[in-house]
Amino acid sequence: MATESTPLPTFQQLLSLPPSLDRQKLPRHVAVIMDGNGRWARQKGLPRIVGHRQGTETLKELLRCCKDWGIPALTVYAFSTENWQRPREEVNFLMLLFETVLGQELAQLIQEDVRIQFIGSLSDLPPSLREQIQRAMTLTKDNQSLLFTVATNYGGRQELVQACQRIAMEVQCGNLTVDEINGQLVERYLYTSGLPDPDLLIRTSGEMRISNFLLWQLAYSEIYVTSTLWPDFDRGQFYRALLAYQQRERRFGKL
Ligand code: FPP
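^ thats the input. predicted complex w/ farnesyl diphosphate below
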């Protein structure tokens, strides 16, 4: 069983897929709840925003790692519908951080053949961030190496409610009958339409919660929780998560 004390491959071995991981059994889609930025900063006597900045560096490195190791889809929870309740300065900082990072990293995403998409209730985001998001999604839409999905102002319940509303509208207009509503159809109305469900959900900082993330899509995902705070989640930690995932037996409700 892989644990938080499982020995790590050398730095050199972590640059490409470590030999102890089975390429054939890699998750096709990894979802991450990046938690613990605030605690990481507090432990160092620094303002919370420094934790978010360091968390961004961690995310950039994880993205690179997914590309290097051949994981084709990564989805991260950057801002939940509940995060608006944080102090205004922190919310403003996060919005500005998303916009700045997107502006700074766009050329690199294009060069590395990464497609970026944002999911969530995007119309409530500041207009300048929305423009930057639109630009990034348009300019990377044909990229193939990695699909990077950022959940921003995202809530799983809100996603299901909007799907229900849109389906009901189709029924009301006579484009659909009630009998035609099934799981496959519901999936087409989710923000993640076209993406396979996550095989693996990683949550950092030790909390054992889903926190309204991808409620439908995580139905059969393997969950890996580590006490490591997000800014400290490096390639070695990711290796341990993948090793634990590969040691699980996935039954999808069957025997
Ligand atoms: C949770 O830690 C983290 C967040 C709410 C923000 C995550 C955002 C990033 C890592 C930046 C991503 C950047 C882009 C461009 C997508 P917390 O603040 O809840 O930590 P705590 O639980 O220790 O307080």
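The longest strand covers residues 146-154.
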